[in-house]
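To illustrate the input format used throughout this study, we show a single complete record. The first block contains the structure-token representation of the backbone; no residue identities are included at this stage. The design step must infer an amino acid for every position from geometry alone.
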């Protein structure tokens, strides 16, 4: 199949290379992406005004594509905040502390609980929901605070976020950029997430256990007072003790909500399977349930002021959501131009027979360079890791999805490569290796984010290596 490449293709490819180079230097890529949109717009619209207008229109396009993801995160954060302030989260998690009797049980217990909670609440809110209650119990039985932070990171920001099977924010971004169904990317990611999670968590546990055996003496106590610390990535961790006490519910009411809330989300999961809900439908079910819980708890906790407080919680949640996803919109806007957005925004400036800039480049590349499964898998892992170096994890997965279609030798291999790149990007940038992305778990555990990043380095690199090999075998 012969594809005619025009200047638009080469300019787009040049900006991808430039964006990767900027990410490697740990610099922000927003200006580069805007420059890329303007340049492509100038070539496509052939007018300066059309180029400038294209920047704004591309932002609108990206915002519309991401809106459901932004909304679900914002609503879940709003709900998480009211659960913390009323003390319900403490009642929900406290029974699980009965199983934490040894350092080994503490590591795996915190990790698995963090993973489950993160699937529904995302890791940042989950750190506050789980860490504040389970950490003292873990330290009491001999698990160092750094061990608890490692478990929370690897299971939450690693395993749960890289799969993101409930909220489906990550697979939606990569699948949209790759032009694939979300379900196909999620299905392809399951064995890779399992391998990555198993290798990294077992390696980290082995290293931690070896260190604990060589050390002697009691573990230091940990203070969990962060009311004076500003944590932009974790607003829930900054709740003061007085604020929680002021809104705490009667114990019987807290127990009632602590029982009902998990049952409601469990019912959501059942309905997803029974009704075959995926993608936006599944997200809508979770989001609607979170809104209902938010309203019910607010009314029960604040009574006559429940309506006003519900609005206040929603405002705080949306502030968090747009703060996190604000930097993603310009980057996603550029990469959406590589697929369907360019035809919608600039009246299809590509030659006849084109299937989008990225697909055209992939076809042209496959005809020039002898690609194979090993090269494609290694390229996706490296690309994903590089895009995660900005500490976001999400800002570069649109790029990962776009590049995956270039290296996919068949329709069956495209979801696997897309999922592999997504896993690499999330594990590196989502909160396991980049120090400034480790603030949530480091703060709640009272450890240095740089030390936490150092401890995670070997397990994550080994996990990525093994996962890449497995991906090659699956293609």
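Output of the design step:
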């Amino acid at each position: 199949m012969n594809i005619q490449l025009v200047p638009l293709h080469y300019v787009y490819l040049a900006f991808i290379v430039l964006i990767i180079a900027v990410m490697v230097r740990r610099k922000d890529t927003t200006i580069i992406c805007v420059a890329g949109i303007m340049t492509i717009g100038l070539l496509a619209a052939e007018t300066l005004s059309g180029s400038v207008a294209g920047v704004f229109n591309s932002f609108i396009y990206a915002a519309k594509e991401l809106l459901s993801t932004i909304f679900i995160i914002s609503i879940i954060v709003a709900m998480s905040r009211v659960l913390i302030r009323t003390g319900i989260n403490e009642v929900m998690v406290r029974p699980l502390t009965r199983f934490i009797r040894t350092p080994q049980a503490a590591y795996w217990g915190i990790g698995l609980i963090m993973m489950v909670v993160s699937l529904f609440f995302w890791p940042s809110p989950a750190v506050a929901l789980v860490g504040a209650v389970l950490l003292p119990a873990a330290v009491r039985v001999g698990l160092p605070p750094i061990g608890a932070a490692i478990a929370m990171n690897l299971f939450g920001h690693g395993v749960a976020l890289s799969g993101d099977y409930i909220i489906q924010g990550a697979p939606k971004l990569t699948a949209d950029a790759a032009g694939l169904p979300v379900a196909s990317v999620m299905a392809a990611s399951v064995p890779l997430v399992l391998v990555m999670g198993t290798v990294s968590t077992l390696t980290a546990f082995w290293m931690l256990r070896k260190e604990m055996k060589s050390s002697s003496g009691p573990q230091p106590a940990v203070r969990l007072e962060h009311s004076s610390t500003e944590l932009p990535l974790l607003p829930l961790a900054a709740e003061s003790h007085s604020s929680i006490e002021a809104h705490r519910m009667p114990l019987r009411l807290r127990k009632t909500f602590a029982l009902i809330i998990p049952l409601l989300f469990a019912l959501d999961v059942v309905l997803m399977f029974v009704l075959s809900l995926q993608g936006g439908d599944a997200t809508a079910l979770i989001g609607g349930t979170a809104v209902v819980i938010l309203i019910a708890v607010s009314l029960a906790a604040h009574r006559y002021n429940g309506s006003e407080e519900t609005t206040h919680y929603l405002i705080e949640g949306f502030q968090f959501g747009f703060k996190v996803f604000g930097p993603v919109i310009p980057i996603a806007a550029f990469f959406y131009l590589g697929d369907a957005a360019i035809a919608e925004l600039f009246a299809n400036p590509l030659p006849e027979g084109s299937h989008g800039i990225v697909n055209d480049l992939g076809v042209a590349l496959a005809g020039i360079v002898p690609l194979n499964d090993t090269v494609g898998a290694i390229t996706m892992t490296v690309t994903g890791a590089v895009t995660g170096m900005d500490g976001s994890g999400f800002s570069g997965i649109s790029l990962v999805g776009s590049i995956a279609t270039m290296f996919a030798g068949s329709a069956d291999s495209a979801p696997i490569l897309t999922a592999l790149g997504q896993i690499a990007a999330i594990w590196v940038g989502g909160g396991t290796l980049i120090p400034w992305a480790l603030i949530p778990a480091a703060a709640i555990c009272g450890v240095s984010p740089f030390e936490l990043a150092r401890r995670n380095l070997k397990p994550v690199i080994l996990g990525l290596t093994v996962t890449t090999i497995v991906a090659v075998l699956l293609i």
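Structural context for interpreting the output: Confidence is low (pLDDT under 50) at residues 217-238. DSSP finds 21 helices and no strands in the chain.
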